[in-house]
Structures are given as structure tokens and as C-alpha cells.
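Human:
I keep going back and forth on a fold encoding question. Comparing notes only helps if you start from a blank page. Show me how you would write down a chain together with its backbone fold. Write it directly below this note and I will take it from there.

Assistant:
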Amino acid sequence: MIKLMRFLKPYRMTLVLVLVLAFAQSFANLYLPTLMADIVDNGVVKGDIGYIWRTGGLMLLVTIGGTICAIVGAFFGARVATGFGKIIRGKIFNRVEQFSLHEFDMMSTASLITRTTNDTTQVQQVWVIILLMMVTAPMMIIGGIILAVAQDATLAWILVVVMPILVGAIALIMSRAIPLFRVMQQKLDKLNLILDEGLSGVRVIRAFDRVKHEEERFDEANHDLTDVAIRVNRIVAALMPIMMLVLNVSGIAILWFGSIRVNNGEMQVGAIFAFLQYAMQILFGLLMVSMMFIMLPRAAASADRINEVLVIAPEINDAPTVNDADTQRGFVEFQDVTFSYPGAEEPALSNISFSASPGEVTAIIGGTGAGKSTLVSLIPRFYDIDSGHILIDGVDVREMSQEHLRAKIGFVPQKAVLFSGTISENIRYGKEDASEEEVQHAADVAQATEFISDMQDGFASVIAQGGMNVSGGQKQRLSIARALVRKPEIYVFDDSFSALDFKTDARLRAALKKETLDATVLIVAQRVSTVMDADQIIVLDEGHVAGIGNHRTLMRTSEVYREIVTSQLSMEEIAEEIA
């Protein structure tokens, strides 16, 4: 919680106002019992009606003033807490956006969502309580003790006995509740994960008739969360009965022993009422503190989880002095590049060297797990390499600013990702200020115009979250159009034609060839037919280069490539291609 307090700086003046209002409210609450004692002792006992009206009017004004302070303080306190929550959510989102793929591997999507929403809400709610009570409760406790002793020091022994009991009860209950609150947030993470998988994978679940299994998984996670929540709430719920028991016993003791002192002439009637009010204010102050302690453990656990995100230093950062290449366009070169995933025993890529120039198509092919997608993900610097150099236009990617580097690249990922919005907005994601003509042209080249025109609203048709209302091939074509509209220097297609039929694939590659005459094109593919016409084919085998050349050359020199070709083409087709 303390680490997050730095985000309250924009609200410093508002915080001062909240504190002043809380101070005024506390002063009003402490002043009222004294006025009431004066009315009883000097007005009621002496029969002075005028004094009763004057003091009663003053009590009314003090009450109204204290009420106004409480309302205004609550308003601004809630405003500060809400603004604080907004800042925290923004900080988490901005930090997550800076994460490399390695950092995303460290924390699950479900956990990041929980930290951004539920954990932030927990911290925000406790700040509302803190701002309303952090001045009021201590002032009522400290001021109440001072004024109660001033009324009658002898009765103060009741407070000396009661307060340690309450403090001990609060400490005992919170010591048992705090660990459970941490477990509770972890259970919530798991519940969100299962819910996310169940919703995003609903088609697979139904196709394999696993609805019952998923329901059981959700029920198990839900019961785990419920059990922990019940346990922690049972512990916390014990605090209120203890507080009320002590409160009522204290009131009886004050009236009992106070009446004895009044009967002995050692104390006035008004003083006993004032003492009782101060005792109630002290105990209610402790009750307010206990309420804060009820919420504080869970908020503290949530704050720790938020800090875990904010303290992660992104591994990939711009160099202190950037060197943005502007003299060349579209040149890509790998120089003896080796890369390992964190914690892996063996490198995913070893000693990779090749170059790609504008106007050329470089295809990357290999078996499953050969490192094809890993290789192209290094070009936009999604990961940093272990050794070697990756040069874009003659400059190492680690020396370029990430913004400048990625502005040169049109990247189409292996898994096509669309965003909620219209088709036009999804294509413009690659270039925000693209004209209607540019959007139309990109869709034409990507072979997407036909199915877009068949939709009711054309380019204004709405894409559902994750592109659930379009097919896999349509998603891939829209993703390709998004890269094309950018007109980058380097195109990277990471197995982006896998969901297309052979006819559409051939038309798309023919259209791409005309569109990318002055650009460098890198294509990751599984189909031999997709890479056969490439100017350069890189064959990967278990993270190593098993051959580089065109189709004819590799058929003669690379055994790995021949195995891939023979597994996909008949002998007649192979003979025709070689001829």
C-alpha cells in the first residue's frame, strides 16, 4: 500500500481538504458531549430555560456543521480514491503494454486481468475507508480519552481495561485473516482462468462433448474460492460481536460506577453522560479502525499483487542513444544469431546467418518446433538474442528505437488476431490515417474484398471480439490486409496462409508479388507450394540452418528439404517442378 501512495500526488490539495474536513468533523463530534453536559448541569438542574435554548442552538449549529463536513469530506474522499484507482489501472495497463513476450510468459492473462480489475478495486475501496477514517478515528480515540479523563479520571480505569481487550481481539483476528486473503486472490485467479478458457474455447468444448467436464472444473474452482471466502469471513465476522459486547459492557460499567459516584457527590449527572458519550466515541473509533483492518488485509494482498506487475522491469528497452537507420530500406541480416528461451536447456536457434534484400522473397520452412516462428519474432525484437547480431538496414535492432523498428515492419502473426470494431477499423489498425482507397486496395490484394462485399454492411460490418463471427481464412486475409495498408519496408508472414485454400493462396501470392516489388518479404510456411517460388528458402531443422537456396538448389543439396517436399508432393509433381 505504501509503495502505491506515490500515485496520490495529483490529489495532494484534495487530500489536504479531506483531512481538514475530517478534523472539523471530529472536533464537532468531540465538542457535542461537553455541550450536552453543560445543558444537563447548568440548564436542566438549575432550570435555566434560556441557557438550554442557547446551548441547544449551539449544539444544532455544531451538528449541522459536522454533518456538512462529513458529506463534503466523503465526496472528495471518494473522488480521490476513484481517481487513484484510475491511475493504478492506467499504470498496470501501460506497464503490461511494455512487457516483452518473456514477461507475458511469467504472468497469465487471467492473473493480469484480475490484478487490473479486482485487485485495483480492493485497493480503491480501502482508500475510501482510510480517507474517511484515518483522521476521524484517531482523533475520536485520542480526543475522547483526554476529554473522558478530564470529566472523571477515576472512571478512566474502565477504558484502561477495555481498550487492550479490543486491540488484542483485532490483532488476533487479523493475524489469522491476512494469509487467507492472499489465498483468496489466488483462487480468484484460477477461477478467472477457467472462465476465460471456457468462454474462448466453447467450440472445442462442445465439439468434444466436454461441457460436463468444464462445468466440474469450474465448480471445483468456485467451491475452492467459496470455502476460503467463508473461512475468512467467519474469522472477520467474529470481530463485530466482540466489539458490540465490549461496547455494551463498557456502557453498563460506566453507568453503574458513575451512578455510585454521583450518589456520593463525587461526580455530576452531566459529567456521567459526557463520559459515557466519550467512551462510546472511543469504542466507535476503535470499531472504525477495526472496519479498516477488515478491509486492509485483502487490500494489502491486492496491493502486493499490483506491485508485482509494476516492479517488473521490461527486458527490452531502447538504447540510451538510439541509431535509427534511414539510409537504407528493407535490408535484413542475421549474423551468427543464437537465441534461447528463458529456462530452456537448449537454444531454440543456433548460429543463424542469412540476409534478405528488398525485392526478394525469403521463405522459411521446417518441421514442427524447428524455430521458424521464433526466428521471425526476433526481427521486430519481441525477444532479445543471446549472441550475434540482427541488422535492419545496416543497424543492430538493439540500437534502434522500438517504435522506429516496428514502423518498418508489417507483421502478420501465426494466430490471426482481430479486434472488436468494424472491418475498416481493423484494417486501419495498421495505418490509422489510411484513406478509403488504401483500405479498399489492401483488401483487394489480400483477397478479402469478395467476402467483405457479401457481408451486410461491407467494410462497416462489425467484427466480434476475437473475430468470432468470421472464419479462420477470413481472419488471416484481414490480418494480411492490415499489414499491407501500412506499406512497410519489410513484410513478415508467420504461417499466415495456412487457413487458405490452394486457389486463394495462389491468387494472394500472385497479388502480393506485384504489391511488394520494393519491399523485403519473409514468409514462414508449412506448404511447399507456398515457398517453391521464393527467391531464397531457408530450411530449419531443430534450430539450425539445414540449407539455404532456391527450390531447385535445395532439392539437390538439402536432405531435410527433400523429405519435406516428398511428404507433400507426388513424384510426378516433383519431376515437373525440377523440369
Observations:
- The chain has three domains: 3-310, 322-408+490-505+515-550, 418-487.
- The chain is about 65% helix and 10% strand.
- Residues 49-98 form the longest helix (50 residues).
